[in-house]
Amino acid sequence: MSEHLRDALRAGFTELTAGPVPAGLDVVAVRQARRRLAAQAAGTAALVAVVTAGTVVGVGAATRDRSAPPAAGTGVMLLAAASCEPGSSYDRPDEPIRSYVLDRRTGRYETVGYCGVVPSPDGRLAVVADGDPSAGRPERQGIMDLATGRVRWIPGRTGAASWAPNSRRLLLLAPDGGTRSYVVEVSDPASSTEVTVPGPPDRPIEVPVWRSDSTISVLRCRGCPPEPSRIPIETPLLPGAYGAGGRHQVVVIAGRPWSPLPITSPDGTEVAVPRKMVRKVQGVASYLQILDARTGAYRGRIDLPDQTELVGWYDDDHLVTRQIPSGDEANGTSGDQDGTLVWEPLDHVWGVVRLEVRDRSGSVLHTADISPGRGPLELAEMITIAPAGGVPDPDGRLGF
Amino acid sequence: LNADDRADFGAFVAARSPALLRTALALTGHREQAEDLLQTALARTVRHWSRIRDGNPEAYVRTALVRNQLNRRRGLARNPETPTADLPERPGADPTAAADIGLMVAAALRRLPNRDRVVLTLRFYEDLPTDEIAKILDCAPGTVRSQLSRALQRLRAACPDLDLTSEPEETHR
Fold first, then answer.
1. Cβ-based burial of A193 (10 A; exposed 0-12, middle 13-18, buried ≥19)
2. By C-alpha distance, which of A332, A342, A17, A344 is closest to B35?
3. Rounded to whole angstroms, how far apart are CA atoms A373 and A90?
4. CA distance A396 to A392
5. Residue A65 in this model has a pLDDT that exceeds 70
6. How far is B131 from chain A (nearest CA, A)?
7. To which H or E segment does residue B23 belong?
8. Please, what is the average pLDDT of chain A?
9. Option in B39, B70, B103 nearest A283 (CB)
10. In chain B, what's the furthest Cα-to-Cα distance?
């Protein structure tokens, strides 16, 4: 029977690896290497100098000075970092599941032994997840009371979680094109309502957004320019969420090829919509479309470097992004010695969450490295940011 | 890169990119991710081309492919962007059975966790012995064997209709 297994695997790999080879890979590699070197140089410069008077490109129409730098150290903080997203715990079954949630009363990060932790805007609850589909334990999600640790499991419903601004409802969005998505009432997790959200936005843009009254509506872009190439977003977008005090809060499900969350600005006037497109010779490019939150009118576009994703808004004029380190090139380390690849343990690379504040030109104004755990944070699959106000922070290490 | 290195690198890519892309496809199970992975690996290769050109550049690229893939976020392991809602058809005795098995196993490989797919690729696609896989993954051979066993167990669970009841013996190429 061993040959049968081997043959089956060969057949599977043959099926998996079929297809043409794109042309010009060497040209692309040389360009990408040059861009990475340039980006590293720019990143180093950004760490030692604050860019002032950034030029606003394409993002328009405001009466205030959108190029003014933000006030550092007061804006937002890392509210939670989950070491695994729902259903991925089996990837390293020998390691403990470890997520961190900031206790707003003490200013300390507390460990939560679940994946997929998404705190509610009011800070009292969190969506958590566990399960291992490959081991016969179905993935499940529940609502945890962060004060008591009690979890009320949501029967029969799973999906990427997004909280309503009032913390009384949450959307579980299935990653399969928008079908089987549900709004769950926190008061009764067993009671859920199926909802219809837009499918893959490979046509004129439609994005679901949470409104301030905790209803979901679909924003349709008006005046969005035609995409220069096809957009390989194959899953629906999640509604961005608002945070305590009317400000935003957002969860980034890191590393997915799609950045799922359109995010409403703190003043509620604009929405930043993460987009990706495939360029013919330069791979996947990420950018943000800025839309009027009320009318959907196109305001402009902000290009992001490779391996960078939107986390949320810093203030009404600045955004928080996150670098997604790729392999041993993370954090600027080369990992090479005399042409030999040197293995660098993940913990060394992923010990901190590095966040960036960018202006509307895409320039990095400052960065912050946050280590929420006492030990290394192995991976921060999902992170949540929230306004920094009102949280004890005697060392000034939480806000940035 | 000087002109010679540039030409040399171009020739290497032209000659080996089909095989390297197939490895990337096996590692990721997804074409766009595979192309992205290969581009990243080639980009790091070109930066050090003058040093590695006289060694084994293909091994360098393959190792970079594996390690970059392992270091990708585990969110990709679930491949949420390529869900497979429909169960594959059962294999039968007809002439298309082999193709059916291939489709079924390919779908199962795509659904496996990232690390499982990587070790299966190295073992059964690249046909590498355990010791060599251990070097690439920087772990003990025993760890590789346990990971292979676990990956096969999951593969069997994902293909319950296939008779994948025993692990093939190791062969050295």
1. exposed
2. A17
3. 21
4. 9
5. no
6. 16
7. helix B3-28
8. 67
9. B39
10. 58
Report the distance separating Cα B3 and Cα B122, nearest Å: 34
pTM for the structure as a whole = 0.56
Residue A12 to residue B47, Cβ atoms within 8 A:
no
CA B116 to CA B25: how far, in whole Å? Answer: 14
The C-alpha torsion from A306 through A312 and A314 to A316, rounded to 10°, is 110
Q: Is the pLDDT of residue A248 over 90?
A: no
User: So what's the pLDDT on residue A151?
Assistant: 94
DSSP state, B122? I
Q: Which residue has the higher pLDDT, A347 or A210?
A: A210
User: Measured between alpha carbons, how far is B70 from B116 in angstroms, rounded to an integer?
Assistant: 10
Chain A hits for B52, Cβ within 8 Å: 339
Predicted local confidence at residue B84, as pLDDT: 30
Q: Give the residue with greater pLDDT, B150 vs A74.
A: B150
Residues in B closer than 8 angstroms to A9, CB to CB, are: 105, 120, 124-125, 155
AA identity, residue A318:
H
Checking if the pLDDT of A95 tops 70, the result is no
Mutate to test the interface with B, among A25, A137, A350, A353 (most CBs of B within 10 A): A25
For A341, the closest of B18, B67, B169 (CB atoms) is B67
- B90-111 residue pLDDT tens: 344 454 555 678 888 888 888 8
Residue type, A120: S
In this complex, do B46 and A26 lie within 8 Å of one another by their Cβ atoms? yes
Whether A85 and B78 lie within 8 Å, measured CB to CB: yes
Which of A93, A118, A240, A83 shows the shortest CA–CA distance to B73?
A83
CB within 8 Å of B9: residues ≥ 6 apart = A26, A29, A30, B1, B45, B46, B49, B53
How far apart, in whole angstroms, are the C-alpha atoms of residue A30 and residue B9? Answer: 10
The answer, yes or no, to whether residue A388 has pLDDT greater than 60, is yes
* pLDDT of amino acid A45: 37
Instruction: Write the ipTM.
Output: 0.77
The residue in chain B having the minimum alpha-carbon distance to the alpha carbon of residue A330 is B71
**B-interface mutation test, from A5, A118, A238, most B Cβ less than 10 A away:** A5
Q: From chain A, pick out residues whose CB is under 8 angstroms from the CB of B37.
A: none
What 8-state DSSP symbol labels residue A166? Answer: T
Q: Output the six-digit token pair for B88.
A: 């594959």
Of B36, B47, B82, the CB nearest to A33: B47
Residue A375, pLDDT > 70, answer: no
What is the per-residue pLDDT for B154? 85
- Structure token pair of residue B151: 């990956």
